[in-house]
Amino acid sequence: MKKPLLKLCLTIIILLNSLLLIAAEKGVISGRVIEEVGGLSIPSAIISVYVDGTEQPLITSSTDEDGRFSIKNLKPGNYHIKISFVGYAPLIVNGIILTEKDYDKNLGSLKLSSDQNSLQEVTITVQKPPIEFGADGVTYNVGSSLLAEGSTATDVLKNVPLVQVDIDGNATIAGKRNTRIFIDGKPSDYMTSNISDLLNVLPSDAIDKIEVLTNPPSKYSGDGEGIINIVMKKGFKVGFNGNVGVSGGLQGNGNTNANASYRGKSYSVNGSAAYRYNIGKGNSHNYRENFFPDTTFYYDQYGGFKNNNTGGNFRLGFDWTISPKQSLRLSTNYNNNNSTSNSTNDLHYLSEELIEKRLRNQLNTGNGKSNNFVFNIDYDLQTDTSGGKLSLSATVNNNHNLDFRDYSTTYAQPSTSAPSLQQNNNDTGNDGITLNLDYEKPVFKKRDRIEMGLAYNYRKNDNDLLIENFNFNTQQFITNVKLSNQFLYNENIAAGYASYNYRNVGWGVKTGVRAELTDVAFDLSNGESYHVKPYLSLFPNLSLNRFFRKRYSVGATYNIRINRPRENTLNPQVNNVDTLNISYGNPNLSPAYTHQMEINFGVFGQKWSFNPRLSYSTSQGVIERYRTVTLIPGTSSARSESTFDNVGTNNSLALILVGNYRPTNKISANSNVSIIQSNYKSKLNSSLNRDGLSFRAAIGLSMQLPLKTAFESNLNYANNTNAQGRNKGSMTSNFSARKVFFGNRLNFRVTINDVFGNRSNTFYNEGQNFRLENFSTNNTQNFTFSLNYRFTKITVNKIPPPPVKAQ
């Protein structure tokens, strides 16, 4: 009798254990995500589930077409979730407890508020999804990247999907010839004479996210085929908090930065400061074949350079909630850069038989300094209880750039050739003011939204170029009247826009139109004056998006964009630093218009996502640099003249593939590939009628390792075509490892840049009577070490969000 009883007991124990195991993983957290204003469901919102006390999400999912989510197979325990979606402030829900008896938690309706109302939200540094996709572009959350810590905006942009950063630090969207950089929704090119200088010193720790807008909404200016919008951090936790950091590299570069904030009941103050020191070194080899009916000869030029750059960036912001219906934000930015440079180049003149006939040596030195100041004021007024809002903003900017260079030329062969010495002093000032008045309001039971607004922008550019040549007989510098000039540029743009956003279950439609009236005038100190007849431009915008079956999305967009010629391309001042390679602008340029269409598709799994995009654009009057080579009369030398022109039309077809895979909650991989087929047609020159294929690829990997360590890497490659040649870039790489101490307050990071070798670039260019190949390399291979200390513990939410009752 004992054996049957024992068997029965064992069977009961096994059944109970099985039931317990089943019950242990039958926990469910569910709910619905909606808009705070309007109550409309939000499909594709990211739901991240965390076990209390951990930094990495246990499970990441997304809402269906009705905004609903259900996270299943959870063990009993204490959880909190984070909900995030592009254009809305993140929402944290704490205190979710699953037990064997109470294993199903329905959180009901969870409301997300617009980022514009983030002053009322509590922001904590919990990791966001690194990349978020939308019908109109991609958002890169800077705080989720190790490579971003202790670095600058330029460093961060190198790892953003769809973005390409060239060897000079200029950022563009892959497949777009004309990309504009915005900061907090406002164009930065109105704020500084050199955008790369600003990005090279802007600290990454002050950046919240980077939006890559391939289809900018009608609220934005019609300039540029795409916009990279850098969104700065504005809201912080209640109380005083911030961080300080320092980094240094074996190349001699260094970077220090700090940001801090204080937030009271109805106001917050935040600021940041950064200082950067950088040493740049490199060399180049330029080989040009010049062929004419009666002669052929070659230029073989070798050069080297070294630059020392220092710069500082200071930002200060003040947010004030005047009343429940009114808010005010004041912000300022000051940026300064100083540089010293020296370079050498040796130009070998080779005959058709490759025999050296002449050798020219040139030594160039330079000093430059620039500074810019920007002041912003933004005022928001809630006009009614249904969510209507009126916004008024103004931006005033002033920047000044002084560049002094001297060029000393001698001839080693023949030694009888006279030397020359020239000084160039370029003094540039840029002032502007931008005014915006915007209104938005939910309509039709707060389901849809209308937006409209007016804008005015004024710019003034003053470019004063003084060129002096040294007279060796009198030992004095004499002004070169032919080349010295002052270029004065004035631009006025008045704009108005209206847009309508429609949302229904699983559907999203955005449509709008923007009108801009442009008035441009510029003149030279030699008496030449130009006034461009005011012209009106219309920029329609359409975006369709459909989310279905809980994991698929399909979208389509269409817009028209403009590339206006501005001072850098219009200024006819001649740069004759190299008398055999001169360059100048073209005051007769016309604006170029581009029609852009895109189809995008998305599919999402619990551990992966895949977003292919197919885009087509056609441009009329494309503005690109154009080179001609002519034989100098009475000599055996040829001069290259480089200027800008409306070279013709360009049709471009691009396939862009973006994917993410997360096999575990501690490993994440992402990649993107862009293939662009371009077709140029030109009446200007038959040599511009060409087809070309551009290619860009990037792959990234991040891992959370034991003992609070982490690893991240990124590889990039680009090869681009243009109207007259090709830029063949090499692979760039970044590897970074981090270790945190003292409850995540202190972290140490080491980064290896371009471990496979210094970054190089090969440029091919050809015309009717020349072929050119240029190879250059920079000292980008570097080991960088960084320390960063946070004033507060980043995993603590000191003010919990409003309680949410389980249903």
Please write out the topology.
Layout: H1 2-24, E1 27-35, E2 46-51, E3 59-62, E4 68-74, E5 77-84, E6 91-98, E7 104-112, E8 131-134, E9 137-141, H2 153-157, E10 163-165, E11 171-173, E12 179-183, E13 186-187, H3 195-201, E14 207-213, E15 226-232, E16 239-249, E17 254-263, E18 267-291, E19 296-323, E20 326-350, E21 356-382, E22 389-413, E23 420-443, E24 448-471, E25 476-479, E26 485-504, E27 507-524, E28 529-548, E29 552-563, H4 567-570, E30 575-578, E31 581-583, E32 592-604, E33 608-631, E34 638-664, E35 667-681, E36 690-705, E37 709-722, E38 725-729, E39 732-741, E40 746-753, E41 760-767, E42 770-778, E43 782-790
Parallel strand pairs: 1-7, 12-15, 31-34
Antiparallel strand pairs: 1-4, 2-3, 2-5, 5-6, 8-9, 9-14, 10-11, 12-13, 14-15, 16-17, 16-43, 17-18, 18-19, 18-42, 19-20, 20-21, 21-22, 22-23, 23-24, 24-25, 24-26, 26-27, 27-28, 28-29, 29-32, 30-31, 32-33, 33-34, 34-35, 35-36, 36-37, 37-38, 37-39, 38-41, 39-40, 40-43, 41-42
- Total beta-strand segments: 43
Let me know the largest β-sheet. Answer: 28 strands, mixed
Structural class: mainly beta
Instruction: Please tell me the overall pLDDT.
Output: 82
Mind explaining what this structure looks like?
By secondary structure, the protein is mainly beta. The chain folds into 2 domains: 20-113, Immunoglobulin-like; 232-790, Maltoporin, Chain A, CATH 2.40.170. It has 4 helices and 43 strands. The strands form 5 sheets. It has a 28-stranded mixed beta sheet that branches. Strands 8-9-14-15-12-13 form a 6-stranded mixed beta sheet, with no helix packed on it. A 4-stranded antiparallel beta sheet has the order 3-2-5-6, with no helix packed on it. The longest helix is centred in the first third of the chain and has 23 residues, at 2-24. The relative contact order is 0.11.
